[in-house]
C-alpha cells in the first residue's frame, strides 16, 4: 500500500465541530478511510456500500478477508437497508440498548457488498452512542463499516495516538476526540439462529442481556475449554496482542500474586524484562521487584477503560513478558477475560 499522510483532526468529544465532521464525512463518501472514536474503542470507517472502500479497510489493517466487519448506523430507519428478515427481538434489543455497545448479527441485505461480511449471508450491525461517531454517521448518511482501528491482532486502539501508532500513512484521516470511555469492544449477539447466541462478551453484560433473553448462552469459541481446563488447540487465534508475551494467571486470589511473583523472578533471572498489569489494590505488592508495572485501576470499568492502553504502554517500555490475571467471569469481567485469553493466545497458567 502506498504511504501517504494521515490527517489528524482534533475534535470535541461532546460537541464535535461541524466543519471537521463534514470534512471527514466527505472522505468517507469519496471511498476513503476515517478513524473515529466510539464509546467502546476507535473504529476505522469506510462506506459499507462501497466494496472497494471496504477492501481498503482490510488492506490498511492487514486483516484477513475471512474476518467480517461490523456495520454502524445512526438511525433505526437504516436497518432494513443493511439487513433483511429482521426479527422482533432485534427491534426490542435496539429499543433498549441502541445507541450503545451491542452488536446484532442479522441476515444481510444484498445491498451490502459481501466483503463486509467476509462472504457470509449475515451482517453484524450496531448503533454507537459517541457524539463524534453519531455526528459522522449522520453527516455521511451512509452505513459505515468499521472494525477496530488497529493493525490486525494488535490491541484495539482507545486513543488517536494508538491509531497513529498502527495506521499512520495507511488511512486518510483520524478524528481525535480523546480517549474512549468503555475501552473494550461491543457485545455481539447472533440473532440468525433458532436461539440468540452471545458471540463476544463486551460493553453490555451478559447479566443485563439475560433480563430480556433469560436463557442466553455464550458460544464464544475463544472462551471454550476442555474438561482439563486447557483450551482446545486451534480454536483460538492471536488477537488483542501486545508484542511482549502475555502470561495469563488464573486461580484463587490468595495464591495468584505469590505465583506471579515467583514467575517474575524466574523470568528476570533468565534476563527477561518483566511487566505487570495489576489492579490498584495489588500494585504495591510488586513494588520491591525490578519490573514495569501499570496500574489498571480500582474498578472493573476502570480496568476495561485502561486494558488495551496498558498493554501498549508496556510494549513501549520494552518488556519481554507481561504478567496479568483475570477479573472474574461476571459483568465486564467476562469481556476482560475474553480479551486477556486471546491476547495470551489461549494459554492459561492455572495456580
Ligand atoms: P472488530 O470490529 O475489529 O472488533 O471485529 C468485529 C468482529 O465482529 C469480528 O472479528 C467478528 O468476530 C464479529 N463479526 C462481524 N460480523 C459478523 C458476522 N456477520 N457474523 C458473526 N460475527 C461477526
Ligand atoms: Mg478488532
Give the names of the bound compounds: adenosine monophosphate, magnesium ion
Radius of gyration from CA coordinates: 20 Å
What do the pLDDT scores average to? 93
Instruction: Identify the CATH homologous superfamily of the largest domain.
Output: DHBP synthase
Compressed to H and E, one letter per element, the order equals EHEEHEHEHEEHEHEEEHEEHEEHEHE
Q: Please identify the structural class as seen in this structure.
A: alpha/beta
Q: Which CATH architecture of the largest domain?
A: Alpha-Beta Complex
- Number of E strands: 17
- What overall geometry do the principal axes of the alpha carbons give? globular
Describe this structure in words.
- The protein has 351 residues and is α/β, with parallel strands linked by helices.
- It has two domains: 7-218, DHBP synthase, CATH 3.90.870.10; 245-350, Rossmann fold.
- It is 30% helix and 20% strand.
- It has ten helices and 17 strands.
- The chain has helices at residues 18-29, 51-61, 79-82, 88-97, 131-140, 160-167, 206-210, 253-269, 300-316, 332-343, and strands at 7-10, 34-37, 42-47, 70-72, 83-84, 102-108, 122-126, 144-145, 173-176, 187-190, 197-200, 217-218, 245-250, 274-278, 292-295, 321-325, 348-350.
- The strands form two sheets. Strands 1, 2, 3, 4, 5, 6, 7, 8, 9, 10, 11 and 12 form a twelve-stranded mixed β-sheet that branches. The protein has a five-stranded parallel β-sheet with strand order 15-14-16-13-17, with helices on both faces.
- A hairpin with a 4-residue loop joins strand 2 and strand 3.
- The N and C termini lie far apart (46 Å).
- The model is unreliable at 222-236 (pLDDT under 50).
- The protein binds adenosine monophosphate and magnesium ion.
- Magnesium ion binds at residues 147-148, 156.
